[in-house]
Amino acid sequence: MTTSVPRQSSPPEEDVMQSPEDRRHMIRRRWLTAVIIVLLIGIPAGYLVIAAEQSRDSGRHNEKKAMATGLTHGWPTKVQRRTFDVPVPKQAIGVWYYQTSNWKVSRLYVQFTTDQAGVNGFLDAVGAKPGALKDGKVTVGARDARIAGWKFNRSRDWSGTTLPQKDPLPTLNITVDSTLPHARRVYVVSTDTP
Questions:
Q1: What are the φ and ψ backbone dihedral angles of 128, each rounded to 5 degrees?
Q2: Residues forming a β-bridge with 185
Q3: In DSSP terms, which residues pair with 54 in a beta bridge?
Q4: What is the pTM of this model?
Q5: If DSSP codes are grouped into helix, strand and coil, which group holds residue 1?
Q6: What distance in Å separates the CA atoms of residue 170 and residue 46, rounded to the nearest whole number?
Q7: Neighbours of 122 (CB within 10 A)
Q8: Three-point CA angle 127, 77, 111, nearest 5°
Q9: 41, exposed or middle or buried, with CB in 10 Å at 0-12, 13-18, 19+?
Q10: In angstroms, what is the C-alpha Rg of the chain?
């Protein structure tokens, strides 16, 4: 009996002909791998760092606003102006505001300086009649004046009005300092009771 050994196939010619990777090709492949890793890991990590920093800055800004006690120089946000029905005239200067809120009532204190046309436009925008301001009348209460840091000296020319509005609109107490003819200082307390 003769035993035959199965014949093994010869390796494909490609494997026999393949030469080892040369050094230049290996360096290029490793460099390309490193670039891909940086792109896949580095860019998302960079976005995370930027987003975290923006979030931290936003938190600091909100914290600073929340800690403010008293008037802040600048314009109330559009949402505040719309919610509290205080349409500050575009030409107003020296704009200051402060908002207080609790579970019973929210108030927005706003002061700005404008000319007589700005005062008339403001009164028209809030729905007040032309003769709504009464001479010698200060409509901002002592408590609200103390919170905002306002002083209503008797030596000034004051006029004021109160606009009670139907819910859900807030009540507006408006007082105007008319001492200087071209620079009317307007004080508004808008009270919203949810």
A1: -90, 145
A2: 113, 177
A3: none
A4: 0.65
A5: coil
A6: 46
A7: 22
A8: 60
A9: exposed
A10: 36
